[in-house]
Request: fold
Amino acid sequence: MIRVLIADDEPMIRAGLRAVLATAADIEVIGEARDGQHAVELARRHRPAVAVLDIRMPGMNGIEATAELRRTVPVTRVIILTTFGEDDYILQALGGGAAGFLIKSGEPEELIIGVRAVADGAAYLSPTVAARVVAHLAATGADTLATRRSSARDRVGTLSPRERDVLAFLGSGLSNGQIARRLHVVEGTVKAHVSSILARLGVDNRAAAAVVAHEAGIAVPPPAQQ
Reply:
Protein backbone atom coordinates (compact mmCIF):
# COMPACT_ATOMS: atom_id res chain seq x y z
CA MET A 1 0.00 0.00 0.00
CA ILE A 2 1.33 3.45 -0.97
CA ARG A 3 0.75 5.87 1.90
CA VAL A 4 0.17 9.43 0.67
CA LEU A 5 -0.09 12.83 2.33
CA ILE A 6 -1.86 15.65 0.48
CA ALA A 7 -1.44 19.37 1.15
CA ASP A 8 -3.38 22.30 -0.27
CA ASP A 9 -4.85 25.37 1.39
CA GLU A 10 -8.18 24.88 -0.43
CA PRO A 11 -10.44 22.22 1.17
CA MET A 12 -12.21 21.48 -2.11
CA ILE A 13 -8.89 20.74 -3.84
CA ARG A 14 -7.90 18.39 -1.02
CA ALA A 15 -11.26 16.65 -1.28
CA GLY A 16 -10.78 16.24 -5.03
CA LEU A 17 -7.30 14.80 -4.61
CA ARG A 18 -8.51 12.38 -1.97
CA ALA A 19 -11.42 11.27 -4.18
CA VAL A 20 -9.12 10.59 -7.14
CA LEU A 21 -6.59 8.67 -5.05
CA ALA A 22 -9.38 6.66 -3.40
CA THR A 23 -10.11 5.03 -6.77
CA ALA A 24 -6.72 3.27 -6.63
CA ALA A 25 -6.74 0.13 -4.50
CA ASP A 26 -3.01 0.37 -3.79
CA ILE A 27 -3.03 3.98 -2.50
CA GLU A 28 -4.07 5.21 0.96
CA VAL A 29 -4.33 8.89 1.93
CA ILE A 30 -3.06 9.05 5.50
CA GLY A 31 -3.46 12.77 6.08
CA GLU A 32 -4.41 16.19 4.75
CA ALA A 33 -2.47 19.38 5.41
CA ARG A 34 -3.61 22.98 4.97
CA ASP A 35 -0.13 24.43 4.43
CA GLY A 36 3.51 23.48 4.11
CA GLN A 37 4.35 23.58 7.80
CA HIS A 38 1.36 21.37 8.60
CA ALA A 39 2.48 18.97 5.82
CA VAL A 40 5.96 18.69 7.32
CA GLU A 41 4.51 18.03 10.78
CA LEU A 42 2.24 15.28 9.46
CA ALA A 43 5.04 13.75 7.40
CA ARG A 44 7.32 13.61 10.43
CA ARG A 45 4.55 11.86 12.36
CA HIS A 46 3.33 9.39 9.71
CA ARG A 47 6.31 9.10 7.30
CA PRO A 48 4.28 8.64 4.10
CA ALA A 49 5.90 7.35 0.93
CA VAL A 50 4.67 10.34 -1.07
CA ALA A 51 3.59 13.89 -0.24
CA VAL A 52 1.49 15.71 -2.85
CA LEU A 53 2.02 19.43 -2.22
CA ASP A 54 0.45 22.49 -3.78
CA ILE A 55 3.25 24.76 -4.97
CA ARG A 56 1.62 27.88 -3.49
CA MET A 57 0.39 27.76 0.09
CA PRO A 58 0.29 30.36 2.88
CA GLY A 59 3.20 30.40 5.28
CA MET A 60 5.55 27.65 4.17
CA ASN A 61 4.89 27.01 0.47
CA GLY A 62 5.39 23.78 -1.44
CA ILE A 63 8.96 24.57 -2.45
CA GLU A 64 10.01 25.33 1.13
CA ALA A 65 8.17 22.27 2.40
CA THR A 66 9.94 20.11 -0.18
CA ALA A 67 13.34 21.29 1.06
CA GLU A 68 12.34 20.67 4.68
CA LEU A 69 11.02 17.20 3.89
CA ARG A 70 14.22 16.30 2.04
CA ARG A 71 16.16 17.36 5.12
CA THR A 72 14.03 15.83 7.88
CA VAL A 73 11.93 13.08 6.27
CA PRO A 74 13.98 11.79 3.32
CA VAL A 75 11.83 8.67 3.00
CA THR A 76 8.98 10.90 1.81
CA ARG A 77 9.21 11.82 -1.86
CA VAL A 78 7.41 14.91 -3.12
CA ILE A 79 5.05 15.57 -6.00
CA ILE A 80 4.39 19.24 -6.67
CA LEU A 81 0.98 20.41 -7.91
CA THR A 82 1.09 23.52 -10.06
CA THR A 83 -1.06 25.59 -12.40
CA PHE A 84 -0.32 27.35 -15.65
CA GLY A 85 1.78 30.48 -15.21
CA GLU A 86 3.89 29.11 -12.36
CA ASP A 87 6.88 28.02 -14.43
CA ASP A 88 9.40 29.88 -12.26
CA TYR A 89 8.10 28.01 -9.22
CA ILE A 90 8.39 24.70 -11.08
CA LEU A 91 12.06 25.38 -11.79
CA GLN A 92 12.67 26.24 -8.14
CA ALA A 93 10.96 23.03 -7.03
CA LEU A 94 12.95 21.05 -9.60
CA GLY A 95 16.16 22.44 -8.14
CA GLY A 96 14.89 21.73 -4.64
CA GLY A 97 14.56 18.02 -5.24
CA ALA A 98 10.88 17.41 -5.94
CA ALA A 99 10.42 14.03 -7.65
CA GLY A 100 7.22 14.74 -9.56
CA PHE A 101 5.29 17.61 -11.12
CA LEU A 102 1.62 17.63 -12.09
CA ILE A 103 -0.74 20.27 -13.46
CA LYS A 104 -3.88 20.70 -11.33
CA SER A 105 -6.05 20.81 -14.43
CA GLY A 106 -4.55 17.57 -15.78
CA GLU A 107 -6.31 14.26 -16.16
CA PRO A 108 -7.12 12.52 -12.84
CA GLU A 109 -5.30 9.34 -13.86
CA GLU A 110 -2.06 11.34 -14.10
CA LEU A 111 -2.17 11.82 -10.34
CA ILE A 112 -2.37 8.08 -9.76
CA ILE A 113 0.34 7.32 -12.32
CA GLY A 114 2.56 10.00 -10.79
CA VAL A 115 2.11 8.77 -7.22
CA ARG A 116 2.90 5.20 -8.23
CA ALA A 117 5.96 6.25 -10.20
CA VAL A 118 7.40 8.45 -7.45
CA ALA A 119 6.68 5.85 -4.76
CA ASP A 120 8.61 3.35 -6.88
CA GLY A 121 11.65 5.61 -6.96
CA ALA A 122 11.07 7.25 -10.33
CA ALA A 123 10.74 10.90 -11.34
CA TYR A 124 7.45 11.87 -12.95
CA LEU A 125 6.86 14.94 -15.11
CA SER A 126 3.42 15.15 -16.64
CA PRO A 127 3.73 15.72 -20.40
CA THR A 128 2.26 19.21 -19.96
CA VAL A 129 4.76 20.16 -17.27
CA ALA A 130 7.68 18.74 -19.23
CA ALA A 131 6.75 20.78 -22.31
CA ARG A 132 6.32 23.97 -20.27
CA VAL A 133 9.62 23.52 -18.43
CA VAL A 134 11.52 23.03 -21.69
CA ALA A 135 9.86 26.05 -23.30
CA HIS A 136 10.30 28.21 -20.20
CA LEU A 137 13.98 27.39 -19.88
CA ALA A 138 14.45 28.61 -23.44
CA ALA A 139 12.28 31.71 -23.00
CA THR A 140 14.08 32.89 -19.86
CA GLY A 141 17.63 32.15 -20.98
CA ALA A 142 19.89 33.29 -23.76
CA ASP A 143 19.34 30.10 -25.72
CA THR A 144 16.47 29.55 -28.11
CA LEU A 145 14.37 26.43 -27.78
CA ALA A 146 16.10 24.98 -30.86
CA THR A 147 19.49 25.70 -29.30
CA ARG A 148 18.52 24.09 -26.00
CA ARG A 149 17.28 21.01 -27.81
CA SER A 150 20.48 20.84 -29.84
CA SER A 151 22.52 21.20 -26.64
CA ALA A 152 20.50 18.48 -24.93
CA ARG A 153 21.07 16.14 -27.87
CA ASP A 154 24.81 16.85 -27.65
CA ARG A 155 24.78 16.02 -23.93
CA VAL A 156 22.83 12.84 -24.58
CA GLY A 157 25.38 12.02 -27.27
CA THR A 158 28.04 11.60 -24.57
CA LEU A 159 26.10 8.66 -23.13
CA SER A 160 26.60 5.06 -24.12
CA PRO A 161 23.77 3.48 -26.17
CA ARG A 162 22.52 1.64 -23.09
CA GLU A 163 22.62 4.80 -20.95
CA ARG A 164 20.64 6.59 -23.65
CA ASP A 165 18.00 3.85 -23.49
CA VAL A 166 17.83 4.18 -19.70
CA LEU A 167 17.49 7.97 -19.93
CA ALA A 168 14.66 7.64 -22.45
CA PHE A 169 12.68 5.47 -20.05
CA LEU A 170 13.65 7.65 -17.07
CA GLY A 171 12.18 10.62 -18.93
CA SER A 172 8.82 8.88 -19.14
CA GLY A 173 8.68 8.27 -15.39
CA LEU A 174 9.73 4.64 -15.15
CA SER A 175 11.40 3.34 -11.99
CA ASN A 176 14.65 1.39 -11.98
CA GLY A 177 12.71 -1.87 -11.70
CA GLN A 178 10.44 -1.01 -14.62
CA ILE A 179 13.41 0.03 -16.76
CA ALA A 180 15.20 -3.20 -15.87
CA ARG A 181 12.24 -5.24 -17.04
CA ARG A 182 12.01 -3.27 -20.29
CA LEU A 183 15.70 -3.75 -21.01
CA HIS A 184 15.92 -7.32 -19.63
CA VAL A 185 18.71 -6.52 -17.18
CA VAL A 186 18.97 -6.61 -13.39
CA GLU A 187 17.86 -3.59 -11.39
CA GLY A 188 21.34 -3.01 -10.01
CA THR A 189 22.63 -2.49 -13.53
CA VAL A 190 20.00 0.19 -14.16
CA LYS A 191 20.87 1.90 -10.87
CA ALA A 192 24.52 2.06 -11.94
CA HIS A 193 23.53 3.47 -15.33
CA VAL A 194 21.36 6.14 -13.68
CA SER A 195 24.25 7.25 -11.45
CA SER A 196 26.49 7.50 -14.50
CA ILE A 197 23.82 9.41 -16.44
CA LEU A 198 23.40 12.00 -13.70
CA ALA A 199 27.15 12.53 -13.55
CA ARG A 200 27.59 12.75 -17.34
CA LEU A 201 24.67 15.16 -17.76
CA GLY A 202 25.78 17.27 -14.79
CA VAL A 203 22.40 17.12 -13.02
CA ASP A 204 21.55 16.38 -9.40
CA ASN A 205 18.45 14.25 -9.61
CA ARG A 206 16.19 12.12 -11.82
CA ALA A 207 13.68 14.89 -12.41
CA ALA A 208 16.39 17.15 -13.85
CA ALA A 209 17.60 14.27 -16.03
CA ALA A 210 14.03 13.76 -17.22
CA VAL A 211 13.96 17.38 -18.39
CA VAL A 212 17.08 16.72 -20.48
CA ALA A 213 15.40 13.65 -21.97
CA HIS A 214 12.40 15.77 -22.97
CA GLU A 215 14.62 18.54 -24.34
CA ALA A 216 16.49 16.00 -26.44
CA GLY A 217 13.23 14.48 -27.64
CA ILE A 218 14.09 10.94 -26.54
CA ALA A 219 11.58 10.38 -23.72
CA VAL A 220 9.40 7.42 -24.62
CA PRO A 221 5.60 7.53 -24.13
CA PRO A 222 4.67 6.96 -20.48
CA PRO A 223 3.31 3.54 -19.52
CA ALA A 224 -0.45 3.10 -19.52
CA GLN A 225 -2.18 3.03 -16.15
CA GLN A 226 -2.46 -0.48 -14.81
